[in-house]
Amino acid sequence: MSAVFKALSDPTRREILRLLREKDLTAGEIAARFELAKPTLSGHFAVLREANLIQSEKSGTTVTYHLNLSVLEEAMCLFLDHFGLVLESRSLPSRLQKDKP
Q1: CATH of the domain spanning 2-92
Q2: What pLDDT was estimated at residue 92?
Q3: Beta-strand relationship, 54-59 and 25-26
Q4: What string of DSSP letters covers 14-30?
Q5: Where is the HTH arsR-type domain (predicted)?
Q6: Quick one: which of 12, 27, 41, 51 could link to 3 by a disulfide (CB 3.0–4.6 Å)?
């Protein structure tokens, strides 16, 4: 989970995730939304891939990125649980639900 929270700590990476929440995008489409050098964006993509928050698919010279929503959802549930914030059990993924007495 540390890699996930490290990835989420940067506003550029959070914006990339927000864009990918709307639809899958190519690296070029994402780059067009930022005034950053391509190597800088590549570094952001690497951090997001390392945290398994995004997945990439290469077709020829085009790389398309997809949001891995289940990892993001799990991180948010664990974050809320860590601070004792209660979610209804039905809203938690089954692997995160605690056994009730």
Answers
A1: 1.10.10.10
A2: 52
A3: unpaired
A4: HHHHHHHHH--EEHHHH
A5: 1-87
A6: 51
Residues 46-68 as b or e (16 or more Cβ within 10 Å = b): ebbbebbbbeeeeeeeebbbebb
61-77 tens-digit pLDDT = 999 999 998 888 888 88
What's the token pair of residue 27? 């690296």
**Gap between the Cα atoms of 18 and 64, Å rounded:** 15
Query: Of 100, 56, 40, 97, which Cα lies nearest the Cα of 74?
Result: 97
DSSP code at position 34: -
How many whole angstroms from its chain centre is CA 81? 19
Give 49-52 contacts, CB < 8 A, sequence gap 24+: 50/3, 50/7, 51/3, 51/4, 51/6, 51/7, 52/3, 52/4
Q: In this structure, are residues 12 and 45 in contact, taking their beta carbons and an 8 Å threshold?
A: no
The domains of the chain are located at 2-92
